[in-house]
Amino acid sequence: MGYEGEKLVATLKAAREKKGLSQRALSARAGVPQSHISKIESGAVNLTVSSLTAIANALDLELALVPRKAAPAIRTISRRANNAPKATPEVRKEIERLAKKLEHIQSLKIDSPVFDNLQRQFREMRQFENLIRNPDTLRSICETLKSVEGVGDVAALQYASRQMNSIRNTLAHGMVDEDRARLPRPAYRLDGDNNE
Fold first, then answer.
1. Measured between alpha carbons, how far is 183 from 176 in angstroms, rounded to an integer?
2. Maximum Cα–Cα distance for the chain, whole Å?
3. Is a pLDDT exceeding 60 seen at residue 182?
4. What φ, ψ does residue 151 adopt, rounded to 5°?
C-alpha cells in the first residue's frame, strides 16, 4: 500500500475512533466484515472503492473528486470541521449507556412505531453530541427507559421519545440552556397555559 493509501486508511481509523466505534460496530453500520476492516486498518489488504465508500458513509464522511486547485481550500475547511469541540467524557459515557439501553429494548422485540421513532431521534441526536454540555438530560432518558420491560410499556417509550426530541431540537437549533433562558416570553399563548 502506498503512502496515499496509508494516509487514507489512517484517516478512516481516526474517524472511527473519534466516533467511539469499535471495528465490530463499524462493521454493522457499513456492512463490511469486521475481519476485513481489521485487515484494512493494519495494512494487510488494499482498500477497494466499494469498501471505502461503505466505510466512509458509515462514518458520516463524504467522498468527492475535486479539482487540484480547490484541494488546499477543502483541506482547510476539513481541518476546521475536525477541530470542532468534542463531547465530554461524561456525555459520551451517557450516550453509550443510552445506546446499550436501546439495544436491550430492541432485543425485547418491541415492534412499535414509537420505538422506531426513538431510535431515529437517537441517531439524529448523536450528530450533535459534541454540543451536549449537560449529561443529566441523557441520564434522565436512560432512567425513563429502565422501566421498559416489554411490549406494554409504550408510555415510557413515548415519554423518552419526547425527551429525546426536545434535546435533539435544542441542539439542532443551536440553543444551549443559557440561550433558552433568555428567549423572549410570548405575549399570549394559544393553548391557554398561564403557568409561566
1. 11
2. 67
3. no
4. -65, -30
Task: Please say whether the beta carbons of 102 and 141 come within 8 A.
Answer: no
How far is the CA of 50 from the CAs of 6, 30, 145, in angstroms? 17, 10, 38
Q: Which residue has the cell 475512533?
A: 17
DSSP state of 147: T
pLDDT tens across 15-65, in order?
899 888 999 999 999 999 999 999 999 989 988 999 999 999 999 888 888
CA nearest to 164, candidates 105, 107, 108, 111:
105
- Residues 152, 102, 128, 55: is their CA dihedral positive or negative? negative
Q: Give me 173's grid cell.
A: 437549533
**All three cell numbers of 118:** 426513538
Task: Please count the CA atoms within 13 angstroms of the CA of 159 that sit on its side-chain side.
Answer: 14
- Model pTM? 0.48
DSSP 8-state symbol, 20: T
E-state strands within 34-173? none
The candidate with the shortest Cα–Cα distance to 149, out of 94, 107, 97, 96, is 107
Residue with cell 425513563: 144
Q: With b meaning 16 or more CB within 10 Å and e meaning fewer, what string describes 5-39?
A: eeebbeebbebbeeeebebeebbebbebeeebbee
